[in-house]
Amino acid sequence: MDIFITNITEEEIRKEKTKAQRLRKSQWWKRRCAKGFCYFCRKKMSPKELTMDHVVPLVRGGKSIKGNVVPACKECNNKKKYLLPFEWEEYLSRLNAELWS
Predict the structure, then answer these.
(1) Considering the domain 2-100 in this protein, what is its CATH number?
(2) Tens digit of pLDDT for each residue in 47-94?
């Protein structure tokens, strides 16, 4: 994980997590989750099963803003971890399969 070390401080991460908590309570986020689809695997599920994933992770300089958070199932969120989508091989393979099917 050393390749993911950034100059982001713990204080900055805490601040962004607080912003994310507020965003989770917003009507915008509730509408996003109401659709019931994981952004990454596209599986349909209960909105309560979806988690908030930062496309650019906080530890990599991502922010808790509407353009950087997506609903994700717990499985995808755990697999992605601190990766950017283009670094996540399983996600890229799925996109390629959809593109060529």
Answers:
(1) 1.10.30.50
(2) 999 999 999 999 999 999 999 999 999 999 999 999 998 898 888 888
